[in-house]
Amino acid sequence: MQHKIELVCPAGSLPALKTAIDNGADCVYMGFRDNTNARNFAGLNFGLDNAKEGVRYAHAKGKKVLLALNTFPQADTWQRWTTAIDNAAELGMDAVILADPGLMRYAAKTHPELRLHLSVQGSATNYEAINFYHEMFGIRRAVVPRVLALPQVEQLMDGTRVEIELFGFGGLCVMVEGRCALSSYATGDSPNTRGVCSPPKAVRWEDTPKGLESRLNGILIDRYAAGENAGYPTLCKGRFDVQGETYYAIEEPTSLNTLELLPELLRMGIAAIKIEGRQRSPAYVEQVTKVWRQAIDNCCRDAGAFAVKPAWMAELGKVSEGQQQTLGAYYRPWK
Amino acid sequence: MKLALGPILYYWDRDTTLGFYEEMGDAPVDIVYLGETVCSRRHLLRLQDYLDIAQRLAAAGKEVVISTQTLIESENDLKTLRKIADNGNFRVEANDMGAVRRLANKIPFVAGSTLNVFNPQTLDLLAGLGVSRWVMPVEMSREALMSILRERQAQPETEVFSYGRLPLAFSARCFTARHHNLQKDDCQFKCLDYADGLALKTREGQPFLTLNGIQTQSALVYNLIAELDTLQDAGVDVVRVSPQAHHTGEILRLFRECMEQRIAPAQALSRIEGLMPAASCNGYWHGKPGLDFIREDTLGLTTKGKSK
């Protein structure tokens, strides 16, 4: 029996959740409608009723639901996070995805039957760190930051019994997740503190004689000439000036796409592939889930004969940031 | 409050680094953090060199702490980590949970700011594993710190990054090598050319960030010298100054004079401004965007303005 890779898809809303399940997701992940998760955007995420319906829908079709509680509880509002853990247990979530050790201890003590996953926001890039969370709290799976080359992932897997989940597709964090405060430096809000990066409320677009400008809390992130594709001003994906040269000094607006690595990921025994994008539309979820379902099934049938179909790349290209795709850090020269 | 010197975040040539620590032996600083925390390719000083420097600084009466690398990716990184954890002589600052695992329940250690202690529950948990001092995340406000200190059970010392360009982000990618169109594995050690990092500005010339290899820093210099009384009132035990290419000794002296109330905060601020590689910011401490600068003037009124 060939090892199976779980396909973990984003559910920013109930329609997106159903779309993901209907199109072949093995798992969906969601967040509650507050700053307990790292996609704390207006109009996104789940209240208790929707979460309940989501779990019912997924379980009826034999699929799993994971709950992201992957921001760091603040002292004043600690109870918001523990209540979320209690609700997750009550709702029958298949796992919670956590980053904060204090919260992991609460979950492990209060709900020992609740499965714990280490969030990418936990910044665990080596097996010593992953084993720490395993020994302390019994985590069963770790989502690894998008910074390791593939051989480094393999080395990491040699040192731990914890399942490994990798990002396969979607928005690309260039920085180690959980260790990036660029957004709060510019706007006051960051993934760690408020569950947002480059928050919409800080964005301003302005048509000027020099071109269309995107600003974040007044800071010029990019300026577009006529005919240039303008993208959301995520602050690490702007064009800046370094020693008189203007370029994407940190990263281009691009999406991660690891489709061609599938046979390798399968051979390595990766437990799950995660699709980024809870903030994206159900149409995005549908397209991406469909392609990845086909690709994973093809690869599991015969990894040796696996080839990325141009049609898949074309589909994924349509929903990629800036219509560009990269293997990111999995491919070492990217670094 | 005690005064600490953070690890050098930049890559300086060997003689410069050795000379710097020679000078620090006489500087008015209580604690010195040593070691390469940013990039494993920086090798002009090896761990043994740092341990030698540590011996000399300890003989000069300093408390020495060896800091671990923040982003640990490879088996080699882990080897170095284990050597540091088992050095048997000096306290260690853990900057990754992998380091915590090596140190937990063995010897007292320092929890670095990248461990993301944002609540009293996590602080108490780490204290139970042997954390005797913790460094607040750079993006945390005074108010949030006070909430933690009010509610915590354990009593490790609290340290705050109080001066220097803020270490804001870490990546697998080297942005200095990228600027030179080089791959990280063949970076030609370009960081050696930028003793205070490489300036990144917006397209309208606003200093925004500083590229330092795989680390991204603020362009502005986080500076709490005029806020030391609020640090003291909040319950901070240790004030950290981050090294810069020039004037670090003078900056430490100003902090010391200010801590001992031999100089007024406003005067200290105006004197330190002449020693800084860029303008001040202090927004994080006030719960604002990090790059804001809030100046308490002599009348006790607050004027707010963004440093350019």
For this entry, what is the oligomeric state of its chains? heterodimer
What is the percent of helical residues of chain A?
A: 25-40%
Task: Give me the side-by-side strand order of the main sheet of chain A.
Answer: 1-2-3-4-5-6-7-15
Query: Radius of gyration of chain B over alpha carbons?
Result: 19 Å
| Count of DSSP-assigned helices of chain A | 11
Q: Which CATH-level-2 architecture of one domain in chain B?
A: Alpha-Beta Barrel
Name the pair of protein chains with the most residues at their interface, and give those residue counts: A-B, 70 and 73 residues
User: What does the average pLDDT of chain A come to?
Assistant: 94
Uncertain residue segments of chain A: none
How far the N terminus sits from the C terminus of chain A, by CA atoms, comes to: 36 Å
- Helix-strand makeup class of chain A: alpha/beta
Topology order of chain B in helix (H) and strand (E) letters:
EHEHEHEHEHEHEHEEEHEHHEEE
Number of strands of chain A: 16
Radius of gyration of chain A: 20 Å
What is the count of β-strands of chain B?
Answer: 14
Q: Which blocks of ≥5 consecutive residues of chain B have pLDDT under 50?
A: 298-308
The CATH homologous superfamily name of the largest domain in chain A equals Aldolase class I
